[in-house]
Specification:
Layout lengths: L7 E3 L14 E4 L6 E3 L14 H23 L4 E6 L2 E6 L5 E8 L1 E5 L5 H14 L10 E3 L2 E4 L4
Parallel strand pairs: 6-8, 7-9
Antiparallel strand pairs: 1-2, 2-3, 4-7, 5-6
Amino acid sequence: MKHLFRVKLDWLFPKKEAARYTKSHTITIEGKDVINVSAAKAFKGDPAFYNPEDLFLSSVVSCHMMSYLYVCKQHGIEVLSYSDKAEAILEVLPNGSGRFIAIHLNPIVCIGMKEKIEEALSLHKEANQVCFIANSCNFPILHFPICEIARSN
């Protein structure tokens, strides 16, 4: 089974800034809000806009969470909350090219059953194996999960 995804990108040469190209543009996905995108501030972009690196890391962390929730459900683990402060390491070479060399996911998961903590922690590996975005990456995605038990009031 295959699925097709489409986006539309629009960029115009800014007449008022004729001395340099601006890197700001819009991404449109049918039926969704327009996303204003630019280069990262380090690459002379508009820091108020999302940049491709932000969006790429967001894709990885979001897909991992959805894959994790899926495998937890398959294993009978009810996830009560999930948060992550993910980091991506981008290496830029002297010739101006670059690539991501690693992503660190730091999920904090809250479940209701103490006896399921070890299993819940181990399921991040399985989630990574089924994650569409992780399967499309050619660098390591490392997991440093924490699993907590819900406090009773």
